[in-house]
Design brief:
Distance between the termini: 17 Å
Keywords: Glycosyltransferase, Transferase
Organism: Asticcacaulis endophyticus
GO molecular function: glycosyltransferase activity
Number of domains: 1
Pfam families: Glyco_hydro_130
Number of helices: 2
Helix content: under 10%
Shape: globular
Strand content: over 45%
CATH architecture: 5 Propeller
Family: Belongs to the glycosyl hydrolase 130 family.
CATH superfamily: Glycosyl hydrolase domain, family 43
Largest sheet: 5 strands, antiparallel
Number of strands: 27
Length: 376
């Protein structure tokens, strides 16, 4: 599906690395870095009417391999940003985003990039950069964030802005909550999920005085559905509720599950925080079709009952968004992934929704999608 307004709004070339929080690494250790990607932005509307993207900036080593070792960037409370050397004969570098430790008893990975979050203020239509707030960047501050902070999602609930993020470390793959009174100045609230969970999305509104969220727990083992079930085993989008947005109870009913008969949901996960429409809660999510190492990421949508989001009233299995080679053509020298669009933010734009996505784990994409697309 194509849209009249669909463009890249922020690319790696727009990031000023002289203002990066990782600048001390380059000075102290003599390690040059570059912006591997500025992508997967959370999106919200500020009180001024402008939009705010919270962008994941993945800062990577220009020369990760040296002297027979590959190096990982890590934040340390005592030393700041440091490099950890791993012998090349102990790792697999097939996936361009990570390297895998081959002699571990479990699946163990490390990163040659470290992600931090950068607030980027946009015009009300999302099509012009107004300001890049380097002074308000969010960086690791705890050992459970030592490999970085990833994939923010922003929801506005009861006049407060809530942002979930994924904190990465050897300790755990945790979801951390930040809170804000203006959508621009954020404070660390707490860790809210400590199991491996990449996509926690808080609904933009209370249901019966409770916060609701979509979650996506991961694991290496999934139990099989019966052979005649319409579903297949694998990652699914679950639900949880909370009285305060800090302490969450999983719902007993399932949420969105991968369906048999389509490659679109061979793997699935949350995309944008659900927003309320006349037809129920609109949820944009990603489905992954197996291909090579990473797969093909596309965006799909579902409607959930306004009073009971565990009841899925409609799911469209025709892609809402797909990766756009036309948009990334000017950046082809920086491309390291194909076939990936990862939608992470949505706001109301009047007769359309303004949708923010990460394109190819490289850049931020803004798309205006008419509301008529979601009518059933």
């Amino acid at each position: 599906m194509t849209y009249a307004t669909d463009r890249l709004i922020l690319t790696p070339d727009d990031i000023d690395l002289s203002r990066s929080p990782v600048a001390g690494l380059r000075v102290g250790l003599g390690a040059e870095t570059f912006v591997l990607g500025a992508f997967n932005p959370g999106l919200t509307r500020l009180e001024s009417g402008n939009l705010l993207m919270m962008v994941r900036v993945a800062e990577a080593l220009k020369t990760p391999i040296a002297n027979g070792h590959i190096h990982a960037i890590r934040w340390d409370a005592q030393s700041g940003y440091v490099l950890d050397p791993w012998p090349l004969d102990r790792v697999d570098t097939t996936d361009p985003r990570v390297f895998k430790v081959t002699d571990a008893s479990w699946k163990v990975i490390a990163l040659t990039s470290l992600s931090w979050l950068l607030p980027v203020e946009l015009s009300p239509d999302g099509l012009e950069i107004i300001n890049i707030h380097y002074d308000k960047a969010i960086t690791p501050t705890a050992s459970f964030q030592c490999y970085g902070i990833e994939d923010p999602r922003i929801s506005q609930v009861n006049g407060e802005w809530l942002m979930t993020t994924c904190s990465v470390s050897p300790e755990r793959h945790a979801t951390v909550l930040y809170r804000s009174q203006n959508g621009l100045d954020w404070r660390f609230a707490d860790m809210v999920l400590d199991h491996q969970n990449k996509d926690m999305l808080i609904f933009e509104g209370l249901i019966k005085d409770e916060y609701w969220a979509q979650t996506r727990p991961l694991g290496d083992v999934y139990f099989a559905y019966p052979p005649d079930s319409p579903w297949h085993a694998g990652p699914s989008i679950n639900l949880a509720t909370s009285k305060d947005a800090l302490y969450w109870k999983p719902c007993t009913h399932p949420g969105l599950r991968p369906k048999k008969g389509t490659a679109a949901t061979a793997r699935m996960g949350g995309g944008t925080p659900p927003i309320l429409t006349p037809d129920g809660w609109l949820s944009l999510w990603h489905g992954v079709e197996p291909k090579a190492v990473v797969g093909i990421y596309r965006t799909y949508w579902s409607l959930l009952d306004k009073d009971d989001p565990s009841r899925v009233t409609h799911t469209a299995l025709h892609p809402l968004l797909e990766a756009s080679p036309r948009l990334t053509e000017p950046l082809k020298d920086k491309m390291y992934l194909d076939d990936v669009v990862f939608t992470t933010g949505i706001v109301d734009g009047g007769d359309h929704y303004i949708v923010a996505s990460g394109e190819a784990d490289l850049a931020c994409r803004i798309t205006h999608i008419p509301k008529s697309v979601f009518r059933i």
